[in-house]
Here is the input.
Amino acid sequence: MAPTPTARPWPEPLPPWLEPIWQRLARAHRQARLGQALLIAGPLGVGKRLLAERLAGLLLCGAADLATRPCGVCPECVLLGAGHHPDHLLLVPDAEAASAEIRVEQVRHLCARETLTPTRGAVKVLTLVPADAMNPFAANSLLKTLEEPVASSVWVLVTEQPQRLSQTIRSRCQRINLPVPPQSVALPWLEARLAEQAKAQVSQAARCLALAHGAPLRALALATPEALALRQRLIDDIIGVARGEHDPIAVANEWQRLDAAAVLAALIDWLTDLLRVAVAPSPARLINPDARPELSALAERIEPAAGHRLLQRLLQARTMIEAPINKQLLFEALLVRWARLAGMRA
Here is the structure.
C-alpha cells in the first residue's frame, strides 16, 4: 500500500526569517556548491529543525526542475513527509539512556549505513539532532567519517550549542547560523499563528516573545494557558521566597514535581532581569516587563556581585538537568541562596 502524507502539509511553509537563508542554500544546491556536511546552529525556537527538514526535501525530492524542490507531491516527498523515506536517516539521543547522550554505538551504526548505496535515489541525508549530545567517543567516531564522507551522502548536524562540538568537527562542516529574528518580523508572524490556532489571546504574543528571548517558535510553544500559568506560578514563588512569605524548602518540594527546564528558565530569566535593573533602573528590555515594580524593589536589596555568582550557579544547573539528579535537593540549594541574596539589605 502506498504511504499516505502526514496530516500537516509537507513541506511546511517556512517562516519569513528563514526564507533568505533557504534561498541561499537552494541556490548553492543548484550550483553544486552545497557541502557534504552542514552545521545548522542557533538558539532554541528559531527553526533549525524546519530548515533541516527542508534541506532533506531539497536533496531527496524527485522533481526534475531543481527550482521546484521540494515539490511536496512526488513519491520521494510523500515518503519524507510521512517520515518513512529510507534515505533520510535521523539520529537522536537514545530514549532508554539515562544520560540523554548520543552514544558511540549509534554513531557507528549510522556511519555504517552511510557506506550503503542509496535505496531510492542518488543521495542519503543523515541528520543528527542535537549534534552536541554526542559523547566524546561518538564525536570521534563521526569525525573519522566526516574526514572522508561517502560521495552519495550529506550530513546535517543541528545544534543549539555549537561550542560543545570539537573544532575539528566544526571545521569540516559548512556553517549555517540562524539568529533570533528582529521583533518586527517575529511578532507579526507569532500574532498570525496565535490567531489561527486559538492557543492564547493574540494580546499575549509580545509577552510570550519576551519570555522566549525573541525566538518565535519557542514563543508559540509558550503561548498556551497552561504554560503561561506555570510561568506565573514560578514567578510568584520566586517573589514569595524573596519576601520571606514562602519557605524555600517547601517551594523546592513543589518544584521537584514540575518540569526542571521550565523552573530553571524562570529563575535564570528573573535573576537576569534583576541584575539589569540593579545596573540601570529603567532598562530598555526586560524578559518579565510586567514585574518591573517587584524587580525595582528587590534590586535595591541585592549585591550585584552575589547576584552574578548565583546566576552562574543557575547556568551550571541548567547543564545538569538531563542527568539523573535529585531535583529537590538542587532546587533547595538554589532557593536558599536566592532567599539569602534577596534578604541581604532587608
